[in-house]
Design a protein that fits this description.
With 209 residues, the chain is mainly beta. 0% of the residues lie in helices and 46% in strands. The strands form four sheets. Strands 1, 2, 5, 6, 7, 9, 10 and 12 form an eight-stranded antiparallel β-sheet that branches. A four-stranded antiparallel β-sheet has the order 3-4-8-11, with no helix packed on it. The relative contact order is 0.14.
């Protein structure tokens, strides 16, 4: 099916009488779940595979911030979301409540490398989900997503917390049970290591969630 374009006008006025208007034009496509399809704007490209959802649905990519790309000189408004700090919103893929039974592919149309603590995230079903980032010199990053939603660049500058219960830390003199929590990008399991006098000890995950 062919991509059409939607358009909306947003107006507002403050208590002093200063008025503001913004006109938004965005790609819009009536897509059949049986055949899937693709839709893109200047920042995002979304590809939904055949058989990903039932029936038909209007798929749209709404714009995010006013900036045209993610360069080093780009200025964004910054807001905090728990341990995460929003650096810039790239767009909104809707409808957010579309039930996907197969993963869609989301491509970020930017080759600018992100700083160390920044990555791409998707806000869907009330939760910010870590997507990943791209290394310098790589192609535009592509991520598998199981739902549509708000796409943004977020910064996580808070280290995970490590704790353990002193009463239960030793089992038969061999095991130490500890807990690592992170409310930002999440824990990298491969990074978890335990040392005893410079000797690396074996670790295993009891629960993850």
């Amino acid at each position: 099916s062919l991509t059409d374009f939607g358009s909306i006008e947003i107006t507002g006025r403050d208590l002093s009488g200063n008025a503001s208007t913004r006109n938004l034009t965005f790609p819009l496509q009536m897509m059949r779940g049986a055949t899937g399809g693709s839709i893109a704007n200047s920042r995002l490209a979304l590809k939904i595979p055949p058989g990903a959802f039932e029936g038909e649905s209007s798929i749209a990519l709404l714009p995010g911030s006013n900036s045209s790309d993610l360069g080093n000189d780009t200025k964004f408004s910054i807001s905090k979301v728990g341990e995460l700090k929003m650096i810039g919103e790239l767009g909104l893929a809707i409808p957010e409540n579309l039930l996907l039974t197969r993963d869609a592919k989301l491509r970020i149309l930017s080759k600018h490398p992100l700083p160390k603590n920044q990555a791409y995230y998707l806000f869907s079903n009330g939760v910010w989900k870590f997507l990943g980032k791209t290394a310098m010199g790589s192609d535009a990053p592509e991520f598998a997503i199981s739902s549509l939603g708000r796409v943004a660049v977020m910064e996580d500058g808070t280290a995970p917390s490590i704790s353990f219960n002193q009463q239960d830390q030793v089992h038969n003199g061999k095991f130490i049970q500890f807990e690592i929590r992170d409310y930002g990008s999440g824990i990298d399991p491969a990074s978890v290591q335990v040392f005893d006098e410079n000797e690396s000890l074996e670790t295993s995950v009891i629960s993850d969630g």
